């Protein structure tokens, strides 16, 4: 039997946190990831069967009772996850009553899940209602997107339209657009509730002046969503740097045609047709 640290799931987490760090999206302890694993994926490993610590959640997670999440640790640095996965990552199992969780692997120096664990789990619960395959929540601090939260109205339609119009790819990757919550204190249950409410409608939610919460079925897909959103925001920044004057654009009609061609339905009311 093999050790969980050698599993493909841990390798995926090591790679994606390193990648995101290298993009400057996770300075210091910025950013966190949670990745749902199925019991049959986890339980064949020899070193995941003992409860090392248990903690109260402080909210009701009975919708995901018994589920496993591989998660980054609170206060831990993405820069370090690659080289010390058994310290900076942990595998937790939500209790049968959904009120607490057990750490069954990792966090070997006494760590705990990310401070944003409430937002992660509440988002998982909401996205699972939309898509039973939902597995990943990824939070990071993408530079150009955060900058837009200072210069642009915090309006979902407005921001989604800018991001869609910066590159032909955007509307195919996030046809529902991007959700936005008001500025709120990170780490709280309150920001978790607001974020998860948006997750019912959007796969990605902007935290103004802070970062992005993205969700998806696989780590690749979820990280790819962050990449595409931030690439659009980066082009928007560059357009500004080149003087900001738009001489020609992707029209709403053209956006609709791209979406149709790829079988996507844009968020109702976000295009002027
Ligand atoms: O984990 O990014 O939002 C540190 C953060 C908090
Ligand atoms: Zn953050």
From TrEMBL:
The pathway where this protein functions is: Carbohydrate degradation; L-rhamnose degradation; glycerone phosphate from L-rhamnose: step 3/3
- Name one matching Pfam family: Aldolase_II
SMART domains the UniProt entry points to: Aldolase_II
Q: In which residues is Zn(2+) bound? A: 139, 141, 210
| A GO MF term | rhamnulose-1-phosphate aldolase activity
Catalysed reactions, semicolon-separated? L-rhamnulose 1-phosphate = (S)-lactaldehyde + dihydroxyacetone phosphate
Q: Does the keyword Hydrolase apply?
A: no
The active site consists of: 116
Enzyme Commission code? 4.1.2.19
Q: Which InterPro entries match?
A: Aldolase_class_II_sugar_metab (IPR050197), Aldolase_II/adducin_N (IPR001303), Aldolase_II/adducin_N_sf (IPR036409), Rhamnulose-1-P_Aldolase (IPR013447)
Keywords of the record, alphabetical order, are: Cytoplasm, Lyase, Metal-binding, Rhamnose metabolism, Zinc
Iron recorded as keyword: no
What's its top-level EC category? lyase
Class II aldolase/adducin N-terminal domain sequence ranges? 11-237
Localisation: Cytoplasm
**Note on cofactor:** Binds 1 zinc ion per subunit.
Q: Which cofactor does it need?
A: Zn(2+)
Question: What family does the entry list?
Answer: Belongs to the aldolase class II family. RhaD subfamily.
Q: What does this protein do?
A: Catalyzes the reversible cleavage of L-rhamnulose-1-phosphate to dihydroxyacetone phosphate (DHAP) and L-lactaldehyde.
What's this protein's name? Rhamnulose-1-phosphate aldolase
| Organism of origin | Streptococcus caprae
